[in-house]
Amino acid sequence: MTKEDYKKRLIVFFSEKLDADKNGYISWDDYRLMALRTTFQQNNGEYNEDIHRKYLTHSKQMWESLCNDVGGNKDGKVHFQDLVNFLYELTSRTRHFEELPDFLQNLAIEVFHMIDKKCDMMWDRDEYRFGSVIWCYVTELKEIDKAFESMLSSDDRKRGGITLERFKELVTEFFTSLDANSPSRNIFGPLDPNMADEILCRAAPVC
């Protein structure tokens, strides 16, 4: 995988996971929407003010951490290219989940718990399907299942899914590996790097 391929993978990830209004950059409003969505998803489709307040506080912390690490422009926007360039510099010296920037660790853990509907600290195939349908642009169930199967080690198969610790390993690989065929490429759902150019054009109207 080239540096450009790596960047495309991450651009699609941030678009699918954080850019809620699909305008080509990340802002505080994206985190606010994520908090509201999480509230409904974690409370069986019902609104709860206390739960919303908890996730809104957590989202605010993640947003501030992102801005501290990467920096936003004067309009309070963090553009994908700046974010991806920042992360690319970490690939050669990051080997463990705990070495990733705080905003990535927090985002990953929140994603894990949002998808762990059975609250057993593990993703099975049905939960991975749920997460992929919610967060990714994917229309074929077989594509989701193939992505899930590609990540399973022999131990994962014995356990029946991906545990939190295994999830952390795959997340670390996702953000640091330059191997285009790494199983970790599917940990956040089957993402299509070919969408990256179109995504970047949203932040540049001249495209």
UniProtKB/TrEMBL annotation:
Transmembrane stretches, start-end: none
Record keywords, A-Z: Calcium
Annotated EF-hand domain residues: 5-41, 58-93
PROSITE patterns referenced in this protein's UniProt entry, alphabetically: EF_HAND_1 (PS00018), EF_HAND_2 (PS50222)
Keyword match RNA-binding: no
Domain of life: Eukaryota
An MF annotation (GO) of this entry: calcium ion binding
Protein name per its UniProtKB record: Sarcoplasmic calcium-binding protein, alpha-B and -A chains
Organism expressing this protein natively: Nephila pilipes (Giant wood spider)
